[in-house]
Amino acid sequence: QVQLVESGGGLVQPGGSLRPSCAASGRLGRVDAMGWYCQAPGKQRELVATITSGGVTDYADSVKGRFTISRDNAKNTVYLQMDSLKPEDTAVYYCNAKIQTVSFAPTNDYWGQGTQVTVSS
């Protein structure tokens, strides 16, 4: 069994910061790319940022320069430093990880339960 457990969401004023984290545990095998997605009410889930096991990052245009994704491979944990938050960043943020649990098998996508981020004055 693989679990992704998120923490660190919350309510913050515009211009503020949050740093959610997501830890993978269980029969992990190899953990490849990890990332964060968000889903606002009435909208589809969309990519926020991803990071490979080697540290290569990619960001949605809407968060470039404001959000920073990082990971600790020894702890199988990914972080999302969210700065200069805007009301339009309000959404449920989901952690994703591509994990190979069986040798020589393809990786599978695993998701966290989601953490609410609300930006409001």
Describe the structure.
0% of the residues lie in helices and 54% in strands. It is mainly beta. The strands form two sheets. Strands 2, 4, 5, 6, 9, 10 and 11 form a seven-stranded mixed β-sheet that branches. A four-stranded antiparallel β-sheet has the order 1-3-8-7, with no helix packed on it. The chain is elongated. The mean pLDDT is 96.
Structure summarized in a few sentences:
The protein is mainly β and 121 residues long.
List keywords for this structure.
121 residues; mainly beta; 11 strands; single chain
Q: Helix count?
A: 0
Average pLDDT for all residues:
96
Radius of gyration: 14 Å
Q: Gap between N and C termini, in Å?
A: 40 Å
Question: What summary fits the major beta sheet?
Answer: 7 strands, mixed
Helix content: under 10%
Order of helices and strands: EEEEEEEEEEE
Segments where pLDDT lies below 50 for 5+ residues?
none
Draw up the topology in text.
Blueprint: E1 2-7, E2 10-12, E3 21-26, E4 30-39, E5 46-51, E6 57-59, E7 67-72, E8 77-82, E9 91-100, E10 108-111, E11 115-119
Parallel strand pairs: 2-11
Antiparallel strand pairs: 1-3, 3-8, 4-5, 4-9, 5-6, 7-8, 9-10, 9-11
